Model the fold of this input.
Amino acid sequence: MAAEIVEVFATVPHGVVVDATLGGAGHTVKLLNAYPWMRVLGIDQDPVAVVHGRKLASENTEVGERLLVEQGRFDEIAAMLERNNISQISGALFDLGVSSPQLDMADRGFSYRNAGPLDMRMDTTQEFCASDVVNSYGLDELTHVLRNHADERFAFRISKAIIASRPITDTVQLAEIIAGAIPAPARRTGGHPAKRSFQAIRIEVNKELDILPRALNEAIRATSPGGRIAVLSYHSGEDRIVKQAFRDAEANPMVQIVASPYHHHASPLHKLVRKVRVSERPSAQEIEQNPRAASARLRVIEKVSS
Ligand SMILES: C[S@@+](CC[C@H](N)C(=O)[O-])C[C@H]1O[C@@H](n2cnc3c(N)ncnc32)[C@H](O)[C@@H]1O
Done:
């Protein structure tokens, strides 16, 4: 939904936009090309994405000169802004989940199609990885992960099969065990049978859902009036969190204390953010060109007052 994302930032105050999920910098490059006044602070926890982003930033080009790259988790936005002497931002973009390069590199362990180690870490300096979840979680814990992070109907059966097959060492072996635990009629519907379980384990490894509300709040706080925050999510668990965080921010009216030489009084309540109406789903044409976009959902809010 790159065109929609570019459109979202057309009206924001000129300044710095945070790309909280820089990845291959596809969105960042489009934004920087569309808006000559924009600077982007790109964040990613994946060292591979950071090296790619820094290479782009070091090039003596229109785009490179306006790009800054920080390695870290996106719930560290406030500290990263402070480090770079940025007091307010014009908005932020969160394109959640896993990137195409991460999925395509078998040795990162994200793919159920190509054999790789049970890794799935976005931040490769972290110790905890997919093997810890697959080979050491108890039955209740594993079932909870599959159910909670991916709405997997057969979470209990899959968890039992995983535990009975330990030790499991690679992604294709894991995918076969998962597929074998799903009843045959269900296996034939809804894409690859291991897709949801892999998503759930990846979310557990990277603690993706735990830190999202805090990250969105930090972004909202740092954004100046008129600035916007756009979030692209790819499954219902993520979207529920985004929707709730935006609702909470919308429902949180601010009381402004107005000082005058004679008295201090509270001005009427005013809103902190408002929802921006956008087309939330990718077009049929985009899904045809990029099937990974099929589950994407875009939500946008605008900061009304600081
Ligand atoms: C869907 S990709 C982004 C693709 C990017 N928008 C582009 O156009 O190339 C998500 C990226 O966000 C990163 N990421 C996911 N969760 C993160 C987090 N909590 N903190 C920092 N980076 C994160 C991943 O490592 C991945 O590179």
About this structure: Residues 21, 23-27, 43-46, 49, 73-74, 95, 97, 99, 122, 208, 211 surround S-adenosylmethionine (CB under 6 Å).
